[in-house]
Amino acid sequence: MSLRVILLGAPGSGKGTQAKRLAASRALCHLSTGDMLRGAVRARTPIGIEAERFLDAGRLVPDDMIVGMVRDRIRAADCAAGFVLDGFPRTVPQAEALDAMLGEVGTPASGAIHLKVDPEVVVSRIAGRRGCRACGTPYHVDYAPPTVEGVCDACGGAVVQRADDEADTVRRRLGVYDEQARGLIDYYTEKETLESVDGSQPLEAVAAAIEAIVDRWSEG
Ligand code: AP5
After folding, report:
1. Is the CB of 54 within 6 Å of ligand 1?
2. Which residues have CB under 8 Å from 86's CB, separation 6+?
3. How far is the CA of 201 from the centre of ligand 1 (A)?
4. How many angstroms does the Cα of residue 13 sit away from the middle of ligand 1?
5. Model confidence over 32-64: pLDDT tens digits?
6. What is the rounded (10 degree) CA torsion for 35, 80, 66, 63?
7. Which helix H or strand E contains 140, and what residues bound it?
8. What number of H helices and E strands is found in the chain?
9. DSSP for 40-53, written as a single string
């Protein structure tokens, strides 16, 4: 059975880290709207040029822009066997648009997993977060450092800090998340497809909890 997993959670809750692991363990497509947008900014595409000011300010890019990007990826051949959504949906209109596009292809979402993490943990994680500029592998200066400082274990690329991880922008991103989160959690609670995981646990424990949920969805 193909899996269509949605990861929800605040900035720094571990969505990207866990989405990469789950996608690798289940041979799923990892769809990170943040990575897509940062890639578009780097490539100076029309969407990237338009999105850049929203990313730099820590604000959400408009729903229609993001929905179009996700629709294209979900329909791509490499996502036919299933996917993990990381950072999408982020608003109720995005969740409704996702349901509509999955309805068009006749394959509903398997469910949504909410990574719950206290705000102070999230702030410390983001402050120490680093990532590979070339392949995107995530690191943390304390919890998950690369073997050689500044060098990616996976590809040898430069390990750097993200532009929107500066303190004021992080505060704005957390505020934006708080504004939208309740509606999104209620949306999936009402659909009875929401599971919660304590995202404050060590990486391996969070991964195991997610795998157990996905095992259940696979069997169902
Ligand atoms: P996006 O890239 O999606 O960022 P985000 O949601 O703010 O999430 P983060 O990437 O900050 O955190 P994460 O939950 O992935 O945590 P991570 O695994 O890295 O979005 C960026 C911007 O793009 C938005 O502000 C917006 O402008 C735009 N955008 C994106 N999607 C959009 C949408 N749908 N609509 C509109 N606009 C959109 O972990 C963080 C750190 O903690 C890492 O260093 C990691 O190593 C470490 N860590 C992770 N888990 C653990 C653990 N269990 N224990 C210890 N350390 C851990």
Report:
1. yes
2. 7, 15, 16, 19, 30, 31, 32, 33, 34, 35
3. 17
4. 7
5. 999 999 999 989 999 999 999 999 999 999 999
6. -140
7. strand 138-140
8. 8, 8
9. HHHHT-HHHHHHHH
